[in-house]
Design goal:
Layout (H helix, E strand, L loop, with lengths): L9 E5 L2 E4 L3 E2 L5 E2 L13 E5 L2 E5 L4 E3 L5 E3 L1 H6 L5 E4 L2 E4 L6 E3 L6 E3 L2 H4 L8 E6 L2 E6 L3 E6 L2 E6 L2 H4 L8 E6 L2 E6 L12
Antiparallel strand pairs: 1-2, 3-4, 5-6, 7-8, 9-10, 11-12, 13-14, 15-16, 17-18
GO molecular function: calcium ion binding
Family: Belongs to the nephronectin family.
Subcellular location: Secreted, Extracellular space, Extracellular matrix
């Protein structure tokens, strides 16, 4: 089976037919499936969509059970947690719905962990980290774009001279470089390449 357009988060099952991994959708399995929008809803109270998955959490006064349902809890109601809580050994512990969130100083609300600045993010050398609330994603470095090349997605240099996204002077030549470009004034002109006289 050959999939000319590729299967980003899935596998090729037939000529240009992708079978997506759970949590992904689209012709090339490149889109995150928003499970929170599915019918029947996967969570009893609140649902938070994540990349390739989702998290359930309960309203204040309820605790999340292992099967994803929410059970009434008197002690949790008094804890006033932002996303729900769990009880153990007579103690109440507030919970955060994602590993990219941590309990704030008040022990009730969840604050974002910036994986990009803490070094927890795993992006390949040619990608840059972009922090999101509760998670992060890897984006191509400036001057590169994501393209499907020889069977996989990769960050490929953008030729600014061809795409006409350079800012070279009218009397200058554009020279493409890896991840960027240079401008050189034409013969008979002098300057930086951005300004030529």
């Amino acid at each position: 089976a050959v999939c000319g357009h590729g299967c980003k988060y899935g596998e090729c099952m037939g000529p240009n037919k992708c079978k997506c991994f759970p949590g992904f959708t689209g012709k090339t399995c490149n889109q995150d499936l928003n499970e929170c929008g599915l019918k029947p809803r996967p969570c009893e109270h609140r649902c938070m969509n994540t990349h390739g998955s989702y998290k359930c959490y309960c309203l204040s006064g309820y605790m999340l059970m292992p099967d994803g349902t929410c059970a009434s809890s008197r002690t949790c109601a008094m804890a006033n947690c932002q996303y729900g809580c769990e009880e153990g050994n007579g103690e109440v512990q507030c919970l955060c719905p994602s590993s990219g969130l941590q309990l704030g100083p008040n022990g009730r609300t969840c604050i974002d962990i910036d994986e990009c600045s803490t070094g927890k993010a795993a992006c390949s050398y040619n990608r840059r980290c972009v922090n999101t609330f509760g998670s992060y994603y890897c984006k191509c470095q400036l001057g590169y774009e994501l393209k499907y090349v020889s069977g996989r997605y990769d960050c490929v240099d953008v030729n600014e001279c061809v795409t006409n996204t350079h800012r070279c002077n009218l009397h200058a030549e554009c020279l493409n470089t890896e991840g960027s470009f240079k401008c050189k004034c034409k013969q008979g002109y002098r300057g930086s390449g951005f300004d030529c006289a």
